[in-house]
Design goal:
single chain, mainly alpha
């Protein structure tokens, strides 16, 4: 059950992270009157919620805290979730971006990374 919670928390964390890091690029016209300093503060405020999910995900998921994943598995899992959330966000929000064959090939290599990291 902790592995399920860990994955759900990582997904939530990465949604906030993606919005904090890339959301302002889409809504740049709304923020034209703001300086870069204020954009950073807004993004930092959103990223706070990323940490509210990321830290518990790592604590619940880590094997030494009774979780299902070692540190290597947690990191690779987080990276695959990050790129999955980023891809969905990009395709939904940035309509002019295209998912290409080289992106798919990169994802296949990431899935292979997960396979090898989780292999006993």
């Amino acid at each position: 059950m902790k592995s399920y919670y860990t994955i759900m928390l990582l997904i939530a964390s990465n949604i906030f992270m993606t919005i904090a890091w890339y959301g302002h690029l889409k809504f740049a016209k709304s923020f034209t009157s703001l300086s870069l300093f204020w954009i950073i503060l807004i993004s930092w405020g959103i990223a706070f919620f990323e940490y509210c999910f990321q830290v518990p995900a790592n604590r619940y998921g880590f094997v030494e805290n009774g979780g299902a994943f070692n540190i290597w598995q947690l990191k690779v899992l987080q990276e695959v979730i990050t790129l999955s959330v980023f891809t969905i966000f990009t395709l939904l929000v940035f309509k002019n971006e295209v998912f290409r064959l080289n992106h798919l090939i990169g994802f296949i290599f990431l899935v292979l990374a997960v396979y090898f990291i989780f292999k006993k």
